[in-house]
Amino acid sequence: MHLLRASFFLGTCLLAATTSPSVWQLGPFSRPKHAQPVITPRPTSTFACPLRHAPVHWEALHTFNPAAIVREGKVYVLYRAEDDSGDMAIGGHTSRLGLAVSDDGLHFTRDPEPVLYPADDDQKAREWEGGVEDPRIVESEDGLYVVTYTQWNRATYDAGVATSRDLRHWTKHGPALARAYGGKYANLKYKSAAIVTKLLNGRLLAARIHGKYWMYWGEGRISLATSDNLIDWAPVEDARGEPVALLEKRAGRFDSFLPEVGPPPVVTSRGIVMIYNGKNADQNGAPGLPGSTYAAGQALFSADDPAQLLDRADTPFFKPELPWERSGQYVAGTTFAEGLVFFHNRWMLYYGCADSLVGVAMTRP
């Protein structure tokens, strides 16, 4: 891995904007006619919390920031659900991951209880009592589902990894970067990790490039990591021995405060297309977009060298427009993209709306 540092670092310094965004970007995406949220809070849902030792209303307040995968001809969505415990503030409740399934990608039936949550296990200290948040999901070639998610204990956070064969029973493996380079990153605060995929027979599968899996990660500065097994990840480092910085904030753009990884990127004929979320700065941000608003943009990386940025759109392709996207628990509004599937011959993008609801947008079939 270390032998590759120099070439990857040089690759990030070469910006070759040779293709038009209209050519390489996924989309265009549009909301369904008469669009409404596809997943909303359900105050009547209860769950016997193994740590509170009492029933909790696990999806009473907010349901948002979804991951998505196609399984056996249906769309499955893992969504973050906040209960009604704790302080009435962002990050003040306990989050768990619920599961919803749909025949058409628009109308969902939900499991009555969460499928991934803080428990009395070896990850309890990392996940209690903030919870598990903001998943991204991929499938391996042999049918193993791998989810990356934020572990939040209300003091610190990291990107955890869990695996499943059925989307309902999960094995936790701890922080993605914890074992890299002898524990060098064991105490790093980081989140938002998305594994590179390829489209094969309608399924988005984790993609090997040069024999390794690749994962973009980070909030504020987007970096890169590799893995042999989809569980243990090692950051790609620059010549100084630090994680490469592939995307950073840009003054006057929609990502002027920070960029943050979105759903799993996709290898296409043009390169690796990454959908990411940009937060607009309150000062010197993008004109016409309110300060602190999250909108979704796209960037293109080389499929041969995932650290080489080829192009990056200057404007978002998707931003808050509807009332329930422009205001909610997060008052500045978000269309926070985290789930992407290819279903019924179209791309479907699932996103969080103002930290409160789940929405969907799609391309034409």
Explain what the structure shows.
- With 365 residues, the protein is mainly β.
- Helix content is 5%, strand content 39%.
- The strands form six sheets. Strands 12, 13, 19, 20, 21, 22 and 23 form a seven-stranded mixed β-sheet that branches. Strands 11, 14, 15, 16, 17 and 18 form a six-stranded antiparallel β-sheet that branches. It has a four-stranded antiparallel β-sheet with strand order 3-4-5-6, with no helix packed on it.
- Residues 1-20 have low confidence and may be disordered.
Provide the descriptors you would attach to this structure in a database record.
seven-stranded mixed beta sheet, six-stranded antiparallel beta sheet, 4 helices, globular, disordered N terminus
SSE topology string: HHEEEEEEHEEEEEEEEEEEEEEEEEHEEE
Average pLDDT: 94
* Strand elements, count: 26
Large-scale geometry: globular
Helix content: under 10%
Distance between the termini: 41 Å
* Radius of gyration over all CA atoms, rounded: 19 Å
From the helix content, strand content and strand pairing, which structural class follows?
A: mainly beta
Q: List the total number of helices.
A: 4
For the largest beta-sheet, the strand count, sense and barrel status come to: 7 strands, mixed
Uncertain regions: pLDDT < 50 for 5+ in a row? Answer: 1-20
> Proportion of β residues?
35-45%
